[in-house]
Structure formats: structure tokens, C-alpha cells
Design goal:
The structure holds three protein chains of three kinds. Chain A is built from twelve helices and two strands, in the order αααααββααααααα. By secondary structure, chain A is an all-alpha fold. Chain A has a two-stranded antiparallel ribbon. Chain B has 13 helices and two strands. The longest helix of chain B is centred in the N-terminal third of the chain and has 27 residues. Chain B starts with a helix and ends in a 20-residue tail after the last helix. Chain C is globular. Chain C is of the alpha/beta class. Chain C contains nine helices and ten strands. The chains are: A mainly alpha, B mainly alpha, C alpha/beta. The interface between A and B is large, with 52 and 48 residues.
């Protein structure tokens, strides 16, 4: 029983971080109809950045976020401006897959070139220690991750619902043409949204890097999880991504207790099962007809 | 439409004679890989190109075909050319897998469909890692084959050639058939097509199942040729993306487009792989090439070329007709003669 | 004459907006009926309900006395109701001829799935129809290269392929130049003389008044008037609906389209 509850807490804490990264992905899709496959490798890139800052420059990873978050934001804007913006036409979403995959491959190659394939990791001192509460172990790093995720998602929520820019984002999500007609600079919204969607990988990457050893290859597993979460939650729904992430990661942690080898399979099985019942995802809009 | 018979016949003759002329095994090896991708791209395009539902999960069929052939060869103790007879069975298996896969995946919007195919792909990869029958992480080795060394590659080449040609022919037949018409209508406006009596689910599923068969067959062939399949090579995400790129490059939804795309990209990939010293630099170059192709030729080579040829022809016609008045009006000023 | 198409008290709400509220219309065999009303009165919604693109919340739809309420579009199509769309919905990446073949494909019963699309008879028929509406010369062109007016004609040819008994035309004259409008009107009269029934939604009053009898008027989802053009034209309720009499009640936003 204790193990079960521990798994649940681990799932919730860990799931929050995944939720943040998935939120970025689903936000990008909602606004631009673009599936950013590079999100996984961008997390790894951010992890490497945190690694360099912490191990080579001896800057605390949390403080390092002050550098990595803006850096990833700028990178996101640059990617959108240079590549995504040029995608037009009916096959836009499919082409965005190919383009973002190409970007991912380039980044991965660069990471290999710079860091080699040996897995690295960094453990800030506080990552090792944990808080002992009511018989559960809550590793500090997980708590920090949860806290970061909570703060970031609250920030995104506030941005979307309380600021003028957020209103433009939501308008663009609903109808790009109408948004343009009322004077919203859709291109700018797209670029900034992409930037935000990527910036969240900085936080996710920091936690990911602190809790796993990783190498450039780690992006594949990440992106497949993030995509599953996003689909499960419903493409374009941030709340859905949050719920899905928490559920999937928790389910995986629980199965991990009994059958570690199949834990990841449960992850995908959950996706399949949910989609059988609700093809649009948990909180996705039910389209009357597939198109 | 490549309605010119002579160039096609010439191309086929060249293809048949190829290994007899170019006997260097390195060359024929590259040719075999290229033909495998020609088949894959043509099959994939018959579903994704015609219907507009982009699948990034066809590696499921490839890997399944590879593993099936491997397991059957091992368990039934087959040797030499006998293994080739397994390929149609592998194709059949691919089709069978495609049925529930398709029924499940084709109920959703296009955007979700892509991701579902990716998810199913990962499920299969995971299963390959975890099941004993598939040899887990180490995979399945092929037995040593005692073909004559000098012409070792030739049986593989001709099998691949047949599969590739067969797939392209069927793809062409489908495109000009009522079935193909329905698929393309679904691509343009699925709701309207439904409203006109097109049984969308049936049509999509039919194309999906068909597209799985050649891919599973070349998967089996590939295992036998490379003598090894393991979860990361049998289910390699790179393949699906490369195939999509080939189809896009050549022209999504045309018959000759994917063939052209495969003929361009696969040899280029192999060349880069062999000549660029650092693997990682190779990755970056490959990705950059990818980007350039997609951004520069969004519609693909064949449609863009057809349009340019059409424009050129119209310009010549109007020159002949005299330059006194404005160039000949076409339907709406845009002579997009996308054919094939 | 008996009624060919009849709706009875059809209601439909979209969220908080009541698009149709007890809409009852009747179209007799051989008539050219008109359906008019201000923007947002529910005309296209009624079309959608009749042809299966939208579900009615309540009420019935009858075709020749048989209830066909909530039948899916392909069934409605198979029963002999043809329908065009306000924003022309053609298949852009296919040629004009292929567009026509798709419209008729459900009739082809060849067992060989790989047989060439459209037998000789089907193609001849399609070309005849294209010729009838006047765009036969564009048969080999991609549908997306057609001008707006040409698309309207293609839609008309389309809807004729299945040889329906009754044609529901959604704004056939919308955004089209006057000479083309006359051509469309004359085609409608010709087809009507050959036995086809029409129900036409239009905003162009000259077009409607000159062509349709009876004319039914929708406002806020209900029928407020119905009858021959002269009666409807002078009906105070109709004038009120269109022009408004400026009374004290605040203007409520109309049902969004």
C-alpha cells in the first residue's frame, strides 16, 4: 500500500513536469496547427545547457533557468520564423512534422558533435536529499520540478486569460482569419507562442537532466511520451495535457511496481484505450465528422 | 501522367539489366536498398498520398515483416531461396495487422491520426524489445546463405525489383480507378465525399491495408539481406520520415513522384553515410537537406516541373500566335497542370 | 398536387442559439419554391437538417410521405434529394470531369476495384451535363482553377448527376454576375419543365420573385409567411422582418450563421 501511494506521489510530481512540456507542445498546435516533433530533443538540449551551466560553470541549475529559459524562448522564435512560417497549404500539419523532425535531427547531430554519446547527468546537491513526510519520500528535485511546473502553468494560464496578448492567442486559436481581420498580428502571435512552447522545455529539461542520465538520443523516448500525452488530453487543450500527463505518468509508476518491463507499454496502451472510447482525446473537441 | 510508353519500357529494361551491367556488389547493394524504398514509398503514397492521411507508422509493417520472416526462417529451418517464399506471407501478415490498426486509427481527424500512427509504432517497438520470441534487444540473425558469391546480390535485387515494380503498377491502377477517385475526393473534402455516397471508412481502410502489404514484404527482404533485425532497426522512426520525405519531394499523390523521390533520396543518403566521416555531421547535413527540400519544393518535383513545363508550353504557344495581344487566357490565369 | 418535401415543426438549437423553431414548410411536386429570410433566420440550417448535415432536435422531415428525419447525407442523397452549398464545395485537386465522376460514382457497379474510373457511358453523361451548364471546355482543367461563377455552374452540374427528384439550391445566384444569373434562372426553368422540383434559398429578391412560387419566409427559425410572390412581397410581417419597424424592444443579436 505504501508503495502504491509512493508511486502515486511520484507520478503526480513527475507528471507535472511532463505536463508542462506537453502544454508547450499542445499550445503550439492549438495556435498554429503545427506538431513540433523537435520538442523532445529541445528538452534534451535544455538539459545539456543546464548541465554545462552547472557542471562547467558551477551555476546552480535553478539559477541557470534565468539563462536557459530566455535562451530557449529565443531559439523557439527563431525556429518558427525561419522554418515554420514558410509552411502553407493543406498539408501544413504533415509538413510541420517533417520540418520539425529535420530540425530535431540537426539539433541532435549538433549535440552529438558537441558532447558525444556518453550519457551525462548532473545532480545538484539537493537532488539527492528528500523530504520525509508521512512515511513518503519526496525527493527535493521532484518537489522543485513540481513547483516549477505549477508556477509555469499558472503563468501560462494567467497569460492566456488575463492579458491582451493572451486574448490574441486564444483568438488565433479559434479562427486565424477572423483574428487577422480584427487586427491581430497572427505572425507575431505564432512566433511568440512557439517561443513560449519551447521556453517551457527549459524548465522541463532542467528537471529531466537532474533526474536522469541522458544523451542526445534521449529525445526519442521523450517526444513519444509527450505526443501521447498531448493526444490523450486532446490536441490543443492545455488542461487536457495536464490531466493526461498526471494520469499517464502515475499509471506508469504504479505498473512499475509490479512489472517494470511493461511499464512503458502501459503508457501507450492507455492512449489506445482512451482513443477507442473518445477519439478526440479526453478534453478534445469532438468533431462531428472526421476531416 | 507518364503516358509515354517508350521511356517507361526503357527504364524497366535498364532496371532488369542493371545487376548484369553493374556487377560491383557495393553498387548492387545500394540498388537493393533503393528499390526497397521505392516500393515502400510507392505503397505509402497509395494510402497517405491519395487520401491525405499522413501515416508515420508504416514501419510497424516493415518491422513485422522483418520479424515474421526471421522467426519463420528460424522455426521452420528454411534456407537459401526458400526464404523468399515467405515474403508473400509476410505481406499478408502486414495486411492483417493493418486491419485493426486502420479501424482504430482512421476514426479520428487527420492531425490525431498522424500521432496515433506514431504511438502504435512505439508500441510495436516496445513489444519487440520485451518479447522473447523476437530475441529482445539482440534481435534475430539470419542464417548464412550459400548463394554464389559473385552474384550474391542478384536474387535479392530481382525480388526487390519485382516488388517495387508491382507496387508502382498497382498504385497506378488504383489512381485511375474509381477507388482512387474516391480516395482523392476524401483527401479534398471528406464530408462532401461522404455526402455523395463514398463509403469513406471502407475506402480508407482498403488503401491502408493495401499499403501495408508491400512494406511488410520489403521488411522481410531487408532482414534477409542485412541478416539482422533488432527493435531499433526493424522499427526505426527514421525510415517512416524518410519515406514521407521521398513522397513529398517527388510529389505527394502522384504515381511517379514517390519513385523519383526514392531514387533521389536513398542513394544520396547512402552516399552521405559512406562518405561523411563523422556520423554526427552526417545527421546535421541530412537534416539540413531535408529542410531545404521541404521548404524549397513544397509541392514536390513532379507537380512543380509539370507546372513549369505547362507554363513554358503556353508561353511558346502565345509567342507563335503573335505577340500583338495579351498571352492566351487559361482557365484562371494559372496553368497548374498537375497531372499523374 | 401532393407534397414532395415536407418538414414538420423542425427545431434545432446550437448551444444557446435557437436556429430553427418549429419550422414547417411544404414543397409540392413540380414546384419551384423559394425560401427567403433575413440573415440568420435559419435557412441554411433547415437545408442542413433536411439533407442530413445537421440533426434536428425535434420535428420531422418527409419525402413523398416517408419520414427521413435525421437520415445521414449519403442516404438523403440516395433518396433523390440533391443539394448545393452556399460556399461552393468542389474537389479542388481533381479535374472538373473527375469531380463529375465522383458525383456519379455511387451508381457504378463494376466489380473490379481497379477498373478505370468512369466507364464510357458515365463519361459521356458527365460531359453532357457539363455542356448543359456551359463549362464543357474546362473538363480537363483542375477544379481549383475555375472562377467563382464557373464553380457555381459546376455545382449545378454536380447536383444533376444523380438525377434527383428535388434540388435544394443554397444561394445559386450569390456573388454571380447578372448574365450568369439569367443563365442559371433559365436552366432552372428548363429543368423544372422537365419535371424537377426546386427549393431555393436566395437573397437576390429579383431572382426569387421572378422565379419562385410559392415563397416561404423564415424569421428567427419559424415560417412567418408563405405564398405567391405578390402576397409575400407586400406582407407586413415580411417587411418587418427584413426592414424592422424600429419598436421599443432592444435589438437582439440574430442567430449566428
Amino acid at each position: 500500500m505504501a508503495k502504491f501511494l509512493q508511486a502515486v506521489t511520484d507520478g503526480i510530481l513527475g507528471g507535472a513536469v511532463y505536463a508542462l512540456m506537453a502544454a508547450g507542445l499542445t499550445l503550439i498546435f492549438g495556435v498554429m496547427d503545427i506538431i513540433n516533433i523537435a520538442q523532445g530533443v529541445l528538452v534534451v538540449l535544455a538539459a545539456y545547457l543546464s548541465y554545462v551551466l552547472s557542471v562547467h560553470l558551477h551555476i546552480d541549475p535553478l539559477l541557470g533557468l534565468l539563462i536557459t529559459v530566455p535562451a530557449m524562448f529565443v531559439l523557439g522564435v527563431a525556429i518558427e520564423w525561419a522554418f515554420m512560417r514558410r509552411l502553407r497549404g493543406r498539408e501544413r500539419t504533415a509538413m510541420s512534422l517533417l520540418v520539425s523532425y529535420a530540425v530535431a535531427v540537426i539539433i541532435e547531430g549538433a549535440l552529438y558533435q558537441a558532447f558525444g554519446s556518453t550519457p551525462v547527468g548532473y545532480l545538484p546537491r539537493y537532488a539527492v536529499a528528500s523530504v520525509h513526510v508521512l512515511g513518503f519520500y519526496l525527493p527535493y528535485i521532484y518537489l522543485i520540478g513540481f513547483g516549477l511546473a505549477a508556477v509555469a502553468m499558472a503563468a501560462i494560464y494567467l497569460m492566456l486569460y488575463r492579458t491582451k496578448f493572451g486574448r490574441s492567442v486564444r483568438a488565433t486559436m479559434q479562427d486565424k482569419v477572423a483574428a487577422r481581420l480584427i487586427g491581430i498580428n497572427v505572425d507575431r502571435v505564432a512566433a511568440l507562442t512557439f517561443g513560449i512552447g519551447v521556453a517551457v522545455t527549459a524548465a522541463g529539461g532542467m528537471v529531466f537532466g537532474a533526474t536522469n542520465t541522458f544523451n542526445p538520443d534521449s529525445g526519442y523516448d521523450l517526444i513519444s511520451r509527450l505526443l501521447s500525452i498531448v493526444i490523450l488530453g486532446g490536441l490543443g487543450s492545455i488542461a487536457g495535457a495536464l490531466v493526461a500527463a498526471l494520469c499517464m505518468v502515475t499509471a506508469e509508476e504504479i505498473v512499475n511496481i509490479w512489472q517494470p518491463t511493461w511499464a512503458t507499454a502501459v503508457y501507450y496502451a492507455a492512449l489506445v484505450i482512451v482513443l477507442l472510447v473518445r477519439p478526440a482525446g479526453l478534453l478534445g473537441k469532438q468533431e462531428a465528422r472526421a476531416q | 501522367m507518364l503516358t509515354r510508353r517508350v521511356p517507361i519500357a526503357a527504364l524497366l529494361a535498364f532496371g532488369v539489366a542493371f545487376p548484369l551491367v553493374f556487377t560491383n556488389p557495393a553498387v548492387t547493394t545500394d540498388a537493393i536498398y533503393t528499390l526497397i524504398f521505392v516500393a515502400w514509398a510507392a505503397a505509402w503514397n497509395t494510402f497517405s498520398g491519395y487520401s491525405g492521411y499522413i501515416s508515420l507508422g508504416h514501419a510497424v509493417f516493415f518491422g513485422s515483416g522483418a520479424y515474421f520472416t526471421g522467426i519463420a526462417t528460424r522455426d521452420w529451418g528454411l534456407t537459401g531461396s526458400e526464404v523468399f517464399w515467405l515474403l508473400p506471407l509476410a505481406g499478408l501478415l502486414g495486411g492483417v495487422i493493418a486491419i485493426p490498426f486502420g479501424i482504430f486509427a482512421l476514426r479520428v481527424r487527420r492531425h490525431t491520426f498522424v500521432v496515433i500512427t506514431i504511438a502504435v509504432f512505439f508500441i510495436f517497438q516496445l513489444t519487440a524489445y520485451n518479447l522473447a520470441i523476437t530475441g529482445g534487444t539482440s534481435g534475430l540473425l539470419a542464417p548464412t546463405i550459400n548463394f554464389v558469391t559473385a552474384t550474391y546480390n542478384n536474387p535479392f535485387y530481382y525480388v526487390a525489383f519485382c516488388i517495387a515494380v508491382g507496387t508502382v503498377v498497382i498504385s497506378w491502377l488504383i489512381r485511375r480507378s474509381r477507388f482512387g477517385l474516391q480516395l482523392r475526393a476524401i483527401r479534398d473534402d471528406e464530408d462532401r465525399a461522404r455526402g455523395l455516397g463514398v463509403r469513406a471508412m471502407r475506402v480508407k481502410l482498403g488503401a491502408f491495408v493495401f499499403s501495408a502489404v508491400p512494406v511488410a514484404m520489403v521488411g522481410g527482404l531487408w532482414w534477409y539481406f542485412t541478416t539482422l533485425v533488432d527493435p531499433s532497426s526493424g522499427f526505426d522512426p527514421l525510415f517512416d520520415v524518410a519515406v514521407a520525405l521521398m513522397a513529398f519531394l517527388g510529389g505527394l499523390g502522384t504515381v511517379s513522384g514517390p519513385v523519383l523521390g526514392a531514387l533521389v533520396i536513398e542513394p544520396a543518403y547512402l552516399y552521405f553515410q559512406q562518405h561523411v566521416a563523422s556520423t554526427y555531421l552526417f545527421w546535421m547535413l541530412y537534416g539540413a537537406l531535408f529542410l531545404v527540400v521541404i521548404l524549397a519544393l513544397p509541392r514536390g518535383i513532379i507537380p512543380t516541373a509539370a507546372e513549369h513545363i505547362g507554363n513554358w508550353r503556353d508561353r511558346r504557344r502565345s509567342d507563335d500566335a503573335g505577340t500583338a495581344h495579351q498571352p492566351v487566357e487559361s482557365s484562371a490565369g494559372d496553368t497548374a497542370k498537375e497531372s499523374a | 398536387m401532393s407534397s414532395l418535401l415536407r418538414t414538420e415543426a423542425v427545431s434545432k438549437a446550437y448551444g444557446g442559439v435557437q436556429a430553427l423553431s418549429g419550422a414547417t414548410i411544404e414543397v409540392e411536386h413540380g414546384a419551384i419554391a423559394g425560401l427567403i429570410g433575413p440573415n440568420g433566420s435559419g435557412k441554411t440550417t433547415l437545408f442542413n437538417v433536411i439533407t442530413g448535415y445537421a440533426r434536428a432536435d425535434s420535428g420531422q422531415v418527409f419525402l413523398d410521405g416517408k419520414a427521413i428525419t435525421n437520415a445521414p447525407p449519403e442516404r438523403v442523397f440516395g433518396l433523390g434529394i440533391g443539394r448545393t452549398f452556399q460556399l461552393t464545395r468542389i474537389f479542388p485537386s481533381m479535374t472538373v470531369l473527375e469531380n463529375m465522376l465522383i458525383a456519379g460514382q455511387h451508381k457504378e457497379r463494376s466489380r473490379n476495384p481497379l477498373a478505370r474510373a468512369g466507364g464510357a457511358a458515365a463519361r459521356r453523361y458527365a460531359m453532357d451535363l457539363l455542356g448543359y451548364v456551359g463549362i464543357a471546355s474546362h473538363a480537363a482543367a483542375l477544379a481549383q482553377t475555375l472562377s467563382y461563377g464557373q464553380r457555381k455552374l459546376l455545382e449545378l452540374a454536380y447536383v444533376l448527376v444523380a438525377d434527383p427528384e428535388i434540388l435544394l439550391l443554397d444561394e445559386p445566384a450569390g456573388g454571380v454576375n447578372p448574365s450568369l444569373i439569367n443563365i442559371i434562372a433559365s436552366k432552372i426553368r428548363e429543368l423544372n419543365a422537365a419535371g424537377k422540383t426546386f427549393l431555393i434559398v436566395e437573397h437576390n429578391m429579383d431572382f426569387v420573385m421572378g422565379l419562385c412560387d410559392p415563397i416561404m419566409v423564415l424569421d428567427y427559425g419559424t415560417v412567418i409567411a408563405s405564398g405567391p410572390p405578390e402576397l409575400v412581397r407586400n406582407n407586413p410581417k415580411v417587411l418587418d422582418a427584413y426592414l424592422g419597424t424600429g419598436d421599443d424592444e432592444p435589438e437582439e443579436s440574430r442567430a449566428g450563421i
